[in-house]
Amino acid sequence: MNSSEACRIVGINTRTGKRWRNGRAVSGRTAGAPPITSVAPPPGPSRYLREEDRIHIADRLREKATVRAIAAELGRSPSTVSREIRRNRHPDSGAYRPHAAQARADARRPRPKLGKIARNPELRAFIQHRLDRKWSPEQICHALRDTFPERPEMHVAHETVYQALYVQGRGELRRELAGCLRSGRARRIPQRQANCRRPRFIDPMVMIGERPAEVCDRAVPGHWEGDLIIDKDGSSAIGTLVERATRYVVLLHLPHGRTAEHVRDALVDTARTLPSHLMRSLTWDQGAEMASHGSFTVATGIPVDFCDPASPWQRGSNENTNGLLRQYFPKGTDLSVHSPEHLTAVAAELNGRPRKTLGWETPAERLHKLIAA
Asked: Measured in Å, how far apart are the chain's first and last C-alpha atoms?
């Protein structure tokens, strides 16, 4: 549009429109007024597109440049530029005007905003009804997509439902509905990415992926997997060690507790009773009982490898053995009453059982064969 038509639509005088457009006073009483200047953006890269970025996008679009070329010139992702054009162009004509796009972006930015569930009473009622019936948020979200396939305003992610329950400043769902969840928690436990977790221990950990190949293929004896079986109240525990090649079991007596120092001392005592070629490495999970793994390695020369978080299958032999040990040490019983002699007898009984994975040999027989060879 020309200036006159634009001023008529906005409802201002053409002189006022000219001053707004040019950014300076042109005549009359305002002739001596200082020019209108914009605040300079802070130096350095910005997370958000700035007005000069939007001006550059508009200029290059008029020159028929591609989205990828514009993104490369701005140092942005092509998806960022594509999304900017799609969201902030004129809703009717489809033209991209940088100052109008900046105004739309500024209007969209203020927080807090009402969430999707709060803005849609029908969606909120649907979710609340299913939560009352003990449905999980993920089940509810799939039901929404099945029930309203052509209505995207009725589709939400299950994390949105959790946030509506736990972030009560938003007031989107009744707080008492959190009791309908299987966990019963009223607070969200953050689920961090594995690569974003803070280190578990002060001493650097060697992860399971860095183990030598001879550990993985179980060809050489002397590589062990370890863990604790714990009683109901967590006050007593028994340490379990399983040799990977032979499934030979050794049990650790922990009469004074399961702190890192107690577990370290028990491991050191056990390692000193075995020949050096039968104790080459130890694999454990990232439980707090292994916080002293560095001093254990210094005392014995045995390296400790750690499993990835929440990956018990990486110690499959040990997990299987712990299941067998529950025949002798049922869950919920006090484990501190068992003497070292009783633990030795239980380990001997397990090591005398034929195992299918060993071709029906016993762990004791397989260990003696490997030692003899």
From this structure: 93
Task: Tell me the per-residue pLDDT of 30-83, one tens digit each, with 9 for 90 and over.
Answer: 444 444 444 455 555 677 899 999 999 999 999 999 999 999 999 999 999 999
Q: Which CATH number fits domain 206-372: 3.30.420.10, 3.30.365.10, 1.10.150.130, 3.90.1300.10?
A: 3.30.420.10
Sign of the torsion angle spanned by Cα atoms 137, 139, 143, 149: positive
pTM beyond 0.85? no
The single residue listed with the structure tokens 């978080």 is 309
Distance CA 71, CA 184 (A): 47
